[in-house]
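Quick entry between incubations.
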Amino acid sequence: MTLTPHFDYAQTLGRKARTASAQMAKAQAAGRNVTLRKLAALLRSSAQALQIDNARDLERARQAGLAAPMLDRLKLTPQAIETCAQGCEQLAAMPDVIGEIIGLRQQPSGIRVGQMRVPIGVFGMIFESRPNVTIEAASLSIKSGNACILRGGSEAIESNKALALLVQQALTESGLPTDAVQLVQVTDRELVGQLITMPDYVDLIIPRGGKSLIERISREATVPVIKHLDGNCHVYVDDPCDIEMAIRVADNAKTQKYSPCNAAESLLVARSVAPAFLPLIGRVYADKGVQMRCDPQALDLLSQLSDGCCQLATEQDWYEEYLAPIISIKLVDDVGQAIDHINRCSSHHTDVIITRDHMHAQVFLREVDSASVMVNASTRFADGFEYGLGAEIGISTDKFHARGPVGIEGLTSLKYVVLGNGEVKS
Amino acid sequence: MTLTPHFDYAQTLGRKARTASAQMAKAQAAGRNVTLRKLAALLRSSAQALQIDNARDLERARQAGLAAPMLDRLKLTPQAIETCAQGCEQLAAMPDVIGEIIGLRQQPSGIRVGQMRVPIGVFGMIFESRPNVTIEAASLSIKSGNACILRGGSEAIESNKALALLVQQALTESGLPTDAVQLVQVTDRELVGQLITMPDYVDLIIPRGGKSLIERISREATVPVIKHLDGNCHVYVDDPCDIEMAIRVADNAKTQKYSPCNAAESLLVARSVAPAFLPLIGRVYADKGVQMRCDPQALDLLSQLSDGCCQLATEQDWYEEYLAPIISIKLVDDVGQAIDHINRCSSHHTDVIITRDHMHAQVFLREVDSASVMVNASTRFADGFEYGLGAEIGISTDKFHARGPVGIEGLTSLKYVVLGNGEVKS
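Done. Structure below.
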């Protein structure tokens, strides 16, 4: 390992986190829940002070010429602080999963074998701009009995420092180790390089941010990474289907919000249902200013729409995550062709079939190789809150360990426990 | 990626495996079980022919001067072939886990959310000498609906080729894709380098073999690795305990077989129970020729034993995986000190407490950070068969994805399934 200016600092963070993680793993659920409720109270009582710190970040960002959407993400409104506080309380109210034993069964030898859920140890989180992620990550870490090292973006450093102090205060006041949540105090890239290559101290890295950040971290990390690259989500409108439902879902999946990763980017339509469905959804999209990039047959069916809202799709369009008022549209012969197209072009995030056919629903659920596969629901439901996980530390588009929205269980591991009466192997 | 002589070959293997994996994921459980039973029948009817191929490997190995234990591992006895056939039949008889849906629950929005178990896709297995691993890996791959690429050691190439042909015959005759199990036909190291860096085609690498092989693969792989390095397993004899049971388990854990990774390498004894226990187990070990490497206090208590069977341990002894008739012995104050020592020195494989104290058992189970943690049972039980997994593709000492013995479930992933009635996000 190269010795860089921050080598010692990163090692110290790691060593402290490892020590704290052993104490967190021993801590009772009740104690961890006390910390979460204390943190909620501190967030509320410090709301004004937090906004003053946040204003310093905002001012600096404005001077640096940050774009309006970035400024929005950076802003800690009273509402955002209250949401954070409520999130902590919700987590505190959730059942504890640490220590639960699953599937304890007697084996022929006489031993009983099961699996106990335990914290994964130490995770590192690397994220950009949004300071509320500090509270989300810290609270999930506390609930799951882990220690974490948080490295936020430089734009939000003042807000993050203020929030991290509150977390550490809540930890200390409730008798848990202060180092269970550490915020990295420097924000250069080099320290990230250290954090992701300390397998002795960090068990898992979770990057949240742009694609280039995540690609760089995946490439360079020597510990496991829970990564989420694109969200190229599909809505497939099957034959037979409830046309009204298809319009409602295809509209919501695309237009309810354009920027989230679980927004739809591509619409597939069964050829036989397209004449009845496409002109109607086309009108909805056109009215909302959504540009449609179509295959020739779809373009034909949309020819009644005004000029400019439709154009011919290129091959690249089938792979694109627009995060914008644009959608690609393609006709397919049947559910089989839809599945083939999705498995080839989707980013394995979230894909939906709208259908009335039970067999089609079953085959779609089984064969679409994505983290979330849905029947008759909007792609926009793909997140930890809607799935009942209580909170979400990220969405994994990998298949290993955690897939889809990652909540508390994704931050745990199952170890085998064996209960015997002196059995020996013969 | 560097273009090496085997680049095209590796890519072809990968492409074929990826195609086969999609077909395997669609295949019904009944069909996969037919394949496994057919394979069992083929193994039995080809037993003589297999031994002729195996004899060629053995002859070559003898000429190359391979050590006797290596030759033993290489040998396909009629008994070994029958065990492989029985293993296939046992897997066929096990319930199918592919497609099962776990925890389907209604959420406040109206959608129902659960998780479906699906094959992980394609795994690569890199292993040494023992040809029966070919059948173990192939049968687990078929049962779990995956495709696999198997790369065995050069010593066993003739045996592996013959076994792989039987597997492919069983696949073809039961209508599954022949390429669902592919044996790499060249055995140089360079091809391994290709296999472990094809994330588009290979989802997971499982190395089985010496520590240097596994370290190299972990370092160089760009896909997840299920790895198993050392098995430095501990037996901790607590106070109070059943001394007779403690002797039986400590004896079995160390001496039932010296070479497996789940054999005990270190004995910890509560100081207060040591005078009653240590001389007795010392006599057992001495009679079996087990060398004891002791801390000064333990050495003192064993002074009655004949010269040469005990010596002072060095610091390095606490970390050693001997795989030989040697054991390290240390006295500790209590269960807390035992846990601290284990978490510092163990390889996180398998550790055991012998106790009558319920509280001590609970704290040991909870706090020892190992893949398998046992109360009153021999470390030697730590394997997939004894745990009821039906078979085992390896033992993971990592915490991520699969921990401990890895059976069918370790080769699967859980994707979210969402069942709606046209719900949209508001």
